[in-house]
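Morning run. Coffee first, then this:
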Amino acid sequence: MRVSSNQILEAGVQSMDNSLADAMAWQKKISTGKNYSKASDNPYAVSRGVRLDFDVARLEMYKTNQNYVASTHAIAQSQMGTMIDELIVLKQAFVQSQNGVLNSTNFKALKIQAEQIRDTIKSQMTAKDATGNAIFPETVNNVQIEPNVTVKSGVQFTDAFNGGTLADPTQSDFYTKINNFVTYLDQRSTGSALTNSASTIETGLNDIFDRMTTAQQKSGGIAAQVDISKEAMSTIGTEMAASASALLDTDLAAATAAYTRSQTLLNAAQAMFARLQQSSLFSKL
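And here it is:
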């Protein structure tokens, strides 16, 4: 079989082109860190990688929601904790008020103390957080913290205080029962007829105390649920990121070896072509 000089020349050029193209492709994978530069390189891997990236982005959304819910409930729990402490003081004041040896001056002192706590609690009911949002908003949203799991974004005003509004918290059952106690102490200090009996006042204070502790416990339950979701989503996020990386990112060790091999073949092809050019066969062309 006869091989023409043109065939040998074309084979040498083709070999150099192929080796150069391979070397450049591997060099691009190494420099970009991406195994595929376009969808046609590997449609399945790229589409699957895009899907994983989308899922990771959704997990970031869940993370943002989790942080928001955790923050709002933490602030609300802290506020409710303070208010529960104040209610305990009111309950203690009620016990003192049932001491048969108290005189009008004593009742007046208790009334002043209860009045101060009432006014403090009123301001706490309508207080705002550092972002300017009400700690106990009149409406709350259902926030998704993981797939198919939603929780309340905060502690709703009426859930904690039973009625009333941010504009007029005095209409709430919570405020009313505290104010009834203040009125009771005032009437005892002046000897006036009692609007409410001692048992009614005691029942009222117990009711709002139980309501507040229940609201705090529910909020704490949501916070605990958020913590569990954070751990679960963090694990899933790590797994998804690893899967996307395995599909789309360059294996630097393998790419470097392939690049070195292509570069070696290119150097060999160039050397061979140079020797062919210098041979007598080509010098006669």
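The longest strand covers residues 142-146. Good start to the day.
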